[in-house]
Fold this sequence. Notes:
Helix content: 25-40%
Strand order of the largest sheet: 2-3-1-4
Number of helices: 6
Structural class: alpha+beta
Distance between the termini: 35 Å
Amino acid sequence: MKKAIGLVELKSTPIGxxxxxxxxxxxxxxxxxxxxxxxxxxxxxxxxxxxAVKNSVERGKLIADIFLVESHIINNVDPQxxxxxxxxxxxxxxxxxxxxxxxxxxxxxxAADIAVKASNVQLIEVRIAKGLGGKGFLIMTGEISSVKSxxxxxxxELAKLGQITSTSVIASPHKSLLEKIM
Length: 182
């Protein structure tokens, strides 16, 4: 089976903690992330085989009940996504920069997976809601055409539902900006 991730966002921290516990007890999954992401929101990310992740997310949705904000399952997730969420990327060569902001925390993870699968880009960072009012953003690098292609793919898939709030592409970022991003 391919590696998948399951994402559950709630509007209650106590119920979020309970949901995370139930999710890992209900299926053979790894708990990647389980914490408050902004005032009143709690996010859970699990990974594992597709079937286990689906079972875990279904259990999470059941426990979350009225506190569920949204949930997603990403099958065959690109390994870069989990590394970027953990903040452990090792970018050696910054070319152009692309940035995407989404209306919700979970959607940025979907955007990151879409971007790296659509084009030859490297994720620099995937930031989930902390201090962002429930939003998420990502920063990527690559050749200008690749960055534009990755952003266009995200827009095609996510913008139609109003999930992307803004994007930008910088062809030749200034050295001082690169130092701050890294």
